[in-house]
From TrEMBL, chains A, B:
Record-linked CDD domains: ALDH_F18-19_ProA-GPR
Pathways per UniProt: Amino-acid biosynthesis; L-proline biosynthesis; L-glutamate 5-semialdehyde from L-glutamate: step 2/2
UniProt keyword annotation of Cell division present: no
An individual GO BP term: L-proline biosynthetic process
Family: Belongs to the gamma-glutamyl phosphate reductase family.
Organism: Desulfovibrio subterraneus
Name of the protein in question: Gamma-glutamyl phosphate reductase
A GO CC term assigned to this protein in UniProt: cytoplasm
Main localization category: cytoplasm
EC numbers, comma separated: 1.2.1.41
Biological function: Catalyzes the NADPH-dependent reduction of L-glutamate 5-phosphate into L-glutamate 5-semialdehyde and phosphate. The product spontaneously undergoes cyclization to form 1-pyrroline-5-carboxylate.
Species lineage: Bacteria, Pseudomonadati, Thermodesulfobacteriota, Desulfovibrionia, Desulfovibrionales
Gene Ontology terms, MF aspect: glutamate-5-semialdehyde dehydrogenase activity; NADP binding
C-alpha cells in the first residue's frame, strides 16, 4: 500500500469505528478509559523503552534541549497521563442528551440532541503525551480519531497506541476508534487533508507554518489554534496593586505559552504611578520592556524603545511591550489591530468600562481583574482540553469534551404533516 | 481597481462595519429592520423596475421557466420580504447575553457570552429575495455580510441593497454592514474565498458544483448546505395509515426541495399490507417508483426496477425509491451508506426502536412519526433561516439567527492569579 491507500484505509476504518462509537454506552467508554489508566502504569517499562529509542534517534539528529524535554516521557508524565484517563472517565458523558426541547403549535416536540462530530484528525508536534490526552478526549466525546504526531515521537506514539487498543478491545469498543499514523512520511498530512469523505474535522496544533499548511490544503473544516498575542489594559482609577499582581502573573508565570502576556496598555492617568511599579517588580524579575516614547522614561534600565515590529509579536520570552494610551477606546483600537483574538484583560474599578470592554473586545477569553493565564481548560473548569481555538466557527476558546461534539434536531410526532 | 482590489476593499469595509455592529444596540438593529420593511413597500416600483431589467436580459439569454420564476420579484414576494424584516425585528436580540456562568473554587466567575461571528460571505444563486433574507438575519446576529448573488439577478440585488443601505444609515448603523458584490465577474468568488483576514465564514448555497468549488478554494471555514437524500423507514408494527400520511406528505408536498423524501424503506413484516397502500395513494398522485425486487410486484403500474444508480440519488421530482428491509438495522445501514445527513424519518409504535433510531441515525434532523418536510427553520420554530447545514462543525441542521453567532469566555475576578 502506498501512503494514499494507507491513509484512505485508516479513514475508512475510522468512519466505521465512529459509527459504532456514537452508539457506545457511557459505561463502555468509561471502562476503556479506566483500563487505559491502569495499563499506562503497568506497562511503564514498555513505554519508557519505546521512548528511549526516540530519544536516542533525536540525540543523534541533534535535537535542541527544549525539544528533547518535550519528547521525554518520565514516570511522572506517565502518571499524569494515567490520572487524566481517570479524570475523563469520571466526567459526565455528553452524548445522547436532549439538552433543550420545545413544543410547536401542531404538537411536534422539537429538541436538540448532543452527538459526536464523527472522525477527528489531529496533527501535532513532538509531545507524545498529547497522543493519550487527545485520544481520550475524542473517545469520551464519541469520536474516532486519527493521530499524527511529530515524526521524532513515532516509537513512543505507537507504544501508547498499543495500550489504547488493548483498553478499547477489553471494553468491547472498536480498536480503530484511536489510530496513530504509523509512518513519518510527510505526505501523510497532505493526504489526510483531502479525505473529507471520512474526516469531519482536522485540528492542527503546533507552529504557524503547520497550521497555515493545513488550512491551505484541507477540504474539511479546520479548528485552528494560532498564537496568542495577549494584552492587559490598566484603566484610569484601577487598583494599581491588584493590577500589578495580575500583570506580573500574566507575564512571568510561564512566559513561553500562548496565554502569557505580550503587551501592557496603561491609561495616561496612571502611567506616572504605575509604570515605576512595573519597572521594579517585572524588571526585577528579569523582564525586558519594549516601550513607547511616553513609557520609556518611566520604566528604568531594562527598557528600550519599541520598534515597528514589536506590536503584534508573540515574544515567548520575558519581554513585554508597554504603551501609554489616552483612553480605553485607544486601547481597544490597539487590541483590535494587534491582538490575536486569544486573551485580553482589563484592570479596572469602573463597572461601565468593565462591561464595555468585555462586550466589545474580540477575544476567545476576555477577563476583568484576572490573570491572562486563566485561559486554560482546567482553570476555567472544563476539565481536560484539546487546545484553544482562535477561530470563531464551531468553538471559540478553550475546547473540552463538549466542544468536540455537536447537536442534531430530533423531532417526535404523532403523524404530523406539513400543510 | 481590479477585482482583487475591489474585493479586498469590500472585505476591509466589512470588517470595520462588523466591529461597529458587534457593539450596536438591539434597538438600532431592530430600527433598521423596521425601516427596511417600510422601504420595501414604499419603493416597490423601483424594485420591480430593476427586476424587469434582469428578467429582460434573462429572457434574451433564454433562461428556462423555473429559473425565470425564481428570478421574478412579484408584489407578493416583496410583501413577504417586508414581513420577514418585521418578524426578524421582533425576535429577541441574541448578542451580549451571558448564557451560562459558573464560579471557580478561587472565586473567578466564568461565563460564556454570545457574540457575532464577524464577517460572513454568502454566495448564492438566482433568487433575489435571498439578498434581503440573508442580509437581515446576518444584521440581527450582529454580523457584517458580503452578498454575492447570481449574476442574472444583479440589478435586482443592487436595488435591494440600496434600500438596505438607506435603512442602515437612517438607524445610525454602518452602510457597509450589508454589501452586495457589484460585479458579475466570476473571479470575485475566487478572490472572496482567499480573504480569510477579513471573512470569518463563507456560506455557499446552490448547486453542488458551486459548493465543491468554494470548499476547494476557501481558506476560511465553510458552512455547507448540500443536497438532501432523505428516507423514511416504516417499522414492523407501525400505524400504517399514519405512516402513509407521513410518507405522502414527505414525498409530494414539494418534491423539488431538499427535505423532500427520496427513499422509502419498509420492514418485511409490513410490505404486503403497506406497499399496495403506497401504490394507490402515491402512485395515484403521479409518483413513479424505483423498486427493489421484493417491492416491485406490490407497487403497481408506476413501478420499475431500481438500477444501481438509484440509491443516493436526489430526484427533485415525483420519483420514490422503495426497498424492503429485513430489520431496522438493515434500514440504518442503508441510510448510513446512501443518506446525505439531511433528514431521516422513522414511522413506528415501538419506543425502544424509536429512541435507538433517533440516537443512532446521523442526520441533521431525525424525526419520529412526522414528515421530513419539517426540517425548516420556520417549521421547527427558529423563525427565519439562512439554510440547512449538512456539515457538523459549528451548526448541524437548520441555521437561524442564533446559529450565526458564537460565544466567548468572559471572566470576572478580583485580582486572581494562577498559582
Amino acid at each position: 500500500m502506498n501512503i494514499t491507500e494507507q491513509m484512505q484505509s485508516m479513514g475508512e476504518k475510522a468512519k466505521e469505528a465512529a459509527r459504532a462509537l456514537s452508539a457506545a454506552s457511557p459505561a463502555a467508554k468509561a471502562d476503556a478509559l479506566v483500563r487505559l489508566a491502569d495499563l499506562l502504569l503497568q506497562k511503564e517499562a514498555a513505554i519508557t523503552e519505546a521512548n528511549s529509542k526516540d530519544l536516542e534517534e533525536a540525540r543523534k539528529r541533534g535535537l535542541d534541549g527544549p525539544r528533547m524535554d518535550r519528547l521525554t516521557l518520565t514516570p511522572a508524565i506517565i502518571r499524569e497521563m494515567s490520572d487524566a484517563c481517570r479524570q475523563v472517565a469520571a466526567m459526565p458523558d455528553p452524548i445522547g442528551a436532549i439538552e433543550t426541547q420545545w413544543q410547536r403549535p401542531n404538537g411536534l416536540l422539537v429538541g436538540k440532541m448532543r452527538i459526536p462530530l464523527g472522525v477527528i484528525a489531529m496533527i501535532y508536534e513532538s509531545r507524545p503525551n498529547v497522543t493519550v490526552d487527545s485520544g481520550i478526549l475524542c473517545l469520551k466525546a464519541g469520536n474516532a480519531v486519527i493521530l499524527r504526531g511529530g515524526s521524532e515521537a513515532i516509537n513512543s506514539n505507537l507504544a501508547l497506541a498499543a495500550l489504547v487498543h488493548e483498553a478499547l478491545e477489553a471494553a468491547g469498543l472498536p480498536r480503530d476508534a484511536v489510530q496513530v499514523v504509523p509512518t513519518t512520511d510527510r505526505e501523510a498530512i497532505n493526504t489526510l487533508c483531502k479525505l473529507e469523505q471520512y474526516i469531519d474535522v482536522i485540528i492542527p496544533r503546533g507552529g504557524e507554518t503547520l497550521i497555515r499548511k493545513v488550512v491551505e490544503l484541507a477540504t474539511m473544516p479546520v479548528l485552528k489554534h494560532y498564537e496568542g498575542v495577549c494584552h492587559a489594559y490598566v484603566d484610569s482609577g484601577a487598583d494599581l496593586e491588584e493590577a500589578l499582581t495580575v500583570v506580573f502573573n500574566s507575564k512571568t508565570h510561564r512566559p513561553g505559552v500562548c496565554n502569557a502576556l505580550e503587551g501592557l496598555l496603561v491609561h495616561k492617568d496612571e502611567a506616572q504611578a504605575f509604570l515605576p511599579m512595573v519597572a521594579e517588580k517585572l524588571g526585577g524579575a528579569g523582564v525586558d520592556f519594549r516601550a513607547c516614547p511616553r513609557s520609556l522614561p518611566l520604566l528604568g534600565s531594562t527598557a528600550t524603545a519599541m520598534s515597528e515590529s514589536d506590536p503584534g509579536t508573540e515574544y515567548h520570552a520575558l519581554i513585554l511591550l508597554v504603551k501609554v494610551v489616552d483612553s480605553m477606546k485607544e486601547a481597544q483600537d490597539y487590541i483590535a489591530a494587534y491582538g490575536s483574538n486569544h486573551t485580553e484583560v482589563i484592570c479596572t474599578r469602573d463597572l461601565d468600562r468593565a462591561m464595555r470592554f468585555v462586550r466589545e473586545v474580540d477575544a476567545s477569553m476576555v477577563a476583568v481583574n484576572a490573570s491572562s493565564r486563566f485561559n486554560d481548560g482546567g482553570q476555567l473548569g472544563l476539565g481536560a482540553e484539546i487546545g484553544i481555538s482562535t477561530s470563531k466557527l464551531h468553538s471559540y476558546g478553550v475546547m473540552g469534551v463538549k466542544e468536540l461534539t455537536t447537536t442534531k434536531f430530533v423531532v417526535f410526532g404523532k403523524g404530523q404533516i406539513r400543510v
